[in-house]
Amino acid sequence: MQALARRDGLPILKQHACFVSISIMSVPSDFLQALQGQLSQPRRIAVISHDRPDGDAIGSSLALGALLQQAGHEVAIFNADPVPQSLRFLPGWERVEVLSSKRTEAHEVDLVFNIDAAGADRISQHVRDSVKGSMLFNIDHHRGNNHFGDHNWVDPDSPATGQMIAQLASAFGWRCGSEIAQALYAAISTDTGGLRYPATTAETYRIMATLVDAGANVGEINRLLYESFPLRRLYGLQEVLQTAEFFADHRVACLTLTMELKQKLGLTPDDTEGMLDHVRGIDSVLAAVFFEERAEAIRVSSRSKDSRVSVRKVCEQFGGGGHDLAAGVRMQGTVEEAKEAFLGELVRRVGEV
Ligand code: 5GP
Ligand code: MN
Q1: Quick one: DSSP state of residue 160?
Q2: CA 289 to chain centre
Q3: Is the pLDDT higher at 187 or at 101?
């Protein structure tokens, strides 16, 4: 292991860098105090995040789980859905226990951490029913978060929940090994589009630098996250790009994925991740929408490149939510009906800017 020189002359191991350069002021003092009080003795803890977990949800859950365990607590990590294939390189991913809706066993704990979930409704009912704790800590960065925990730390200016977990670790003085560093790196990278989206701040880069110091391998993580797709994804992309439609002088774009195509190519939910970026990246496009036909509903995934066009507001109008520049909703009816209603509202808003 490589030793790093410290200002006071004592060497510290690269694998165990502390979150020294990260602002500890970011964690609200009342939240921190409540948590410190609870963690002053060994606790049984459950970490849960939203359904269909993404990189931020999984990375943050794994990191927080490992940090709490390191601090002497007993930790279990739960989700309603399995870890996406693309994230199964993260150390400890197998620790995420998938709770089946068919079997509701009780998981009694002292504390529950809800991670990256804007509301209780983003977590399946059977997960909420089976994981029972006497206190709920809610850590999230969605503007629409409805503060459903007993203690809530919601920072809508934070680009990723992973960034908040790093700040929490810093505030507690917890040490960060390479496995935690990888999980947090993946969390922050995936939610910031690889440190490109506008919510990315200098603090984000400082945290990433700390994670690299702590052993996150930049080349390897990025290859595994962004350059390890199965071939069928390319075939899926070829067909999905054919469906590209443009509205409002090419300022609004959409892609459509039918059930039929998904079945024909055997596409998994993981395969469609990021497809929207191809139309989002067109110079004229301000907002892009992905419509995916599913058995239970039409999944709508939307992105904006312009702060004046909030896709969150459009999604909220149909019962969904998210961030101003990345939001989603599930809509009932046919794909055509969903497209007409959603695009009608989006085009109207784009017309106002
Ligand atoms: P994505 O488009 O990547 O699935 O999701 C982007 C953002 O929108 C995420 O932050 C997620 O929380 C939010 N989001 C996605 N789908 C839904 C949904 O059906 N309901 C709500 N409330 N938020 C969603
Ligand atoms: Mn997130």
Answers
A1: -
A2: 19
A3: 187
Q: Which atom of ligand 1 is nearest to the CA of 301?
A: 2
C-alpha distances in angstroms, 244 versus 200, 229, 280, 291? 29, 22, 11, 11
Write out pLDDT tens, residues 114-171. 999 999 999 999 999 999 999 999 999 999 999 999 999 999 999 999 999 999 999 9
- Quote the longest CA-to-CA distance of the chain: 66
Question: How far is 16 from 150, CA to CA, in rounded Å?
Answer: 32
Q: Which of 49, 122, 302 to mutate to test the pocket of ligand 1 (most atoms within 8 A of CB)?
A: 122
Tell me if 198 sits within 8 A of 220, measured CB to CB: no
Mean pLDDT for the chain?
Answer: 93
The mean pLDDT value for 247-258 works out to: 98
Which of 165, 222, 187, 179 has the alpha carbon at shortest distance from 16? 179
* 161-172 vs 29-38: helix crossing angle, rounded to 10: 70
The dotted CATH code for 232-351 is: 3.10.310.30
Q: DSSP string covering 59-94, please? A: HHHHHHHHHHHHTT-EEEEEESSPPPGGGTTSTTGG
pLDDT of residue 105: 85
Distance, in Å, from the CA atom of 276 to the CA atom of 255, rounded to the nearest integer, reads 7
Contact 345, 327 (CB under 8 A): no
Which residue has a Cα nearest atom 16 of ligand 1?
Answer: 328
Sketch the domain layout of the chain as residue ranges.
3-226, 232-351
Residue 142 token pair = 């969605």
Domain 3-226, classified CATH 3.90.226.10, yes or no: no
Mean pLDDT across 28-50:
97
Pocket test for ligand 1, best of 142, 273, 312, 314 (most atoms within 8 A of CB): 142
List the end-to-end C-alpha distance of the chain, in Å, as a whole number: 54
Ligand 1 binding pocket, CB closer than 6 Å? 118, 122, 142, 301, 320-323, 326-330
